[in-house]
Recover the amino acids of this structure.
């Protein structure tokens, strides 16, 4: 979701810069990139390892929430280019769709409703609904089960390194659309396809449909 459907990763980077300076650890936005795709438990461990005793989670998140809430009081969730046309294509061609996001259910629900895309998804699996965070495959296995499909019959669209590993380990055909990080050859070996945008993903599925017809 974050970084794939919605351009929210950059917003979190700005929020952590803001909050980090307030609590005295300096601009912490770089940790947004380091923790891409992690659920709260793994996110917490990573921040604690970076900042030690200076990591005051409640105060940090309080100021992050202030920044984020101020943004959403004036703006809607920023949608990635090509999202609506891609979702329309999947819906009109009989694809079942699920969200498999490490974000808390509260955030997932807000974003997909704010963007007007909630009705496209027959299942939503959030980070607080699984025991093991990405890169563990649990979240994708649950999403496939909710869709009533085996992983080898599913495509997983991902933007983060932890998400890529999670989807690949589950057995899904993983399509990578990188956002704030640069994948290397090791990452490419885990991918079914790699594209620069959701527009290109849509074009790929259109071309497959044309080949079958």
């Amino acid at each position: 979701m974050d970084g794939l459907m919605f351009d929210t990763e950059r917003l979190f980077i700005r929020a952590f810069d803001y909050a980090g300076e307030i609590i005295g650890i300096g601009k912490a936005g770089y940790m947004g990139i380091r923790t891409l795709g992690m659920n709260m438990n793994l996110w917490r461990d990573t921040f604690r390892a970076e900042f030690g005793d200076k990591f005051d989670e409640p105060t940090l998140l309080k100021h992050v929430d202030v920044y984020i809430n101020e943004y959403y009081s004036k703006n809607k969730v920023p949608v990635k280019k090509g999202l609506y046309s891609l979702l329309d294509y999947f819906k009109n061609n009989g694809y079942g769709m699920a969200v498999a996001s490490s974000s808390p259910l509260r955030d997932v629900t807000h974003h997909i409703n704010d963007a007007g895309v909630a009705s496209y998804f027959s299942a939503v699996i959030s980070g607080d609904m699984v025991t093991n965070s990405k890169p563990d495959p649990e979240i994708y296995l649950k999403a496939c089960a909710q869709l009533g499909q085996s992983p080898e019959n599913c495509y997983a669209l991902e933007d983060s390194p932890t998400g890529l590993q999670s989807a690949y380990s589950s057995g899904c055909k993983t399509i990578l659309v990188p956002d704030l990080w640069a994948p290397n050859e090791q990452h490419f070996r885990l991918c079914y396809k790699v594209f620069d945008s959701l527009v290109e993903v849509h074009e790929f599925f259109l071309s497959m449909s044309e080949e079958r017809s």
